[in-house]
Amino acid sequence: MSENQKISLSKNLIAGGFGGVCLVFAGHPLDTIKVRLQTQVTSGESRLYMGTFDCFKKIVMKEGVFGLYKGMATPIVGITPISAICFFGYGLGLKLQTPSQANTKYGVMQTFVAGMVSGAFTTLFIAPGERIKCLLQIQQASGAEVKYAGPVDCAKQIYRNSGAKGVFKGSVATFIRDVPGNGVYFLTYELMKKTLTPEGGSSANLGAGRTLLAGGVAGMMICIYAFPADTLKSRMQTAPDGHYRNLRHVFTTLYKQEGLMSLYKGFSAAIIRSFPANAACLCGFEFALRFLNWAAPSL
User: Fold this and answer.
1) Which candidate, 181, 31, 171, places its Cα nearest to that of 118?
2) CA distance 168 to 92
């Protein structure tokens, strides 16, 4: 990934898809908890969940263990190609630049820019999938009658009631979260790999343990940066049509009614999730890439 001539966009695409599957399986339960905490209203009424562990306990007691996996079909179907596009975009972002350092190595700013390219590539595809995922994750939280039978039914109802605008609701927040966020993500990952590489060794040959560590730290860094925008996105995507005029209205409403810290509701679940989910994603990507380099070197 750090040497221009070794970047294969087709391999990045395939390995990125596999990394996305690893991410979903490792991180979805805590993602469900995060969304439940982000979207509960705490102003003027009792709180349904008192924190991450309380939310976990209530979901399991009320809905069973599989309640933690509500809405997982959407990210499995959606994140696999999105993750593939993300890593494709990152590889393309690198290939469009001339390495600024010796031995065809990319500089810090070049890595950051390549990460931003990957974020721009994926925003268009992520927003609709996350809209559906969030609605499915919260629909049983209040104990009301189940509105959506599944991802396809949810998408049909959104489109029937609100059209394409409803499907892409929250896209601006997704763009703000993902474009610079992916820059932070890939830059942190590459810097961690460089730091963890033994003297005289190559970051391309890191073992599973060090790759997992690098991926986990990268996931935590993007979580810290992106979480406020993610909260605004979740609130906008799960609110009734017309409840918020725009992203600024979401922020001012939350700030006035629940305070600045409302932007960090569910942060503990998200930061805990970010390490194993992204460790699994990036480790899955790296080892899939190594397999492809072995099985299809000319691809």
Assistant:
1) 181
2) 25
The pLDDT assigned to 46 comes to: 66
Element (H, E) at 16: helix 9-39
Neighbours of 136 (CB within 10 A): 24
Would you state the pLDDT for residue 124?
Answer: 80
CA dist list (Å): 153 to 4, 46, 103, 136, 150: 44, 31, 52, 10, 5
Q: What percent of the chain has pLDDT over 90?
A: 52
Kindly report the pTM of this predicted structure: 0.81
The more confident residue out of 6 and 31 is 31
Give the count of beta carbons closer than 10 Å to the beta carbon of residue 252.
Answer: 13
For residue 98, the model assigns a pLDDT of 86
Which residue in the block uniquely carries the two structure tokens 């003027």? Answer: 44
pLDDT single digits (tens) 82-138: 899 999 999 999 999 988 776 778 999 999 999 999 999 888 888 888 898 888 878
Q: Taking Cα atoms as reference points, which of 261, 263, 83 lies closest to residue 173?
A: 263
Q: Give residue 289's pLDDT band: very low, low, confident or very high (50, 70, 90).
A: very high
Tokens of 33: 């908890």
199 Cβ neighbours under 8 A, 6+ residues apart: none
CA atoms within 13 A on the CB side of 83: 24
Token code pair at residue 152: 């396809």
DSSP 221-246: HHHHHHHHHHHHHHHHHHSPTTS-SS
Return the percent helix, strand and coil in the chain, to nearest 5: 75, 0, 25
142 in Cβ contact with 59 (< 8 Å) = no
Burial of 201 (0-12, 13-18, 19+ CB in 10 A): exposed
Q: Are 214 and 282 in contact (CB under 8 A)?
A: yes
155 pLDDT higher than 70: yes
Instruction: Name residues whose C-beta falls within 8 Å of residue 127's C-beta, 6 or more positions apart in sequence.
Output: 168, 169, 170, 171, 174
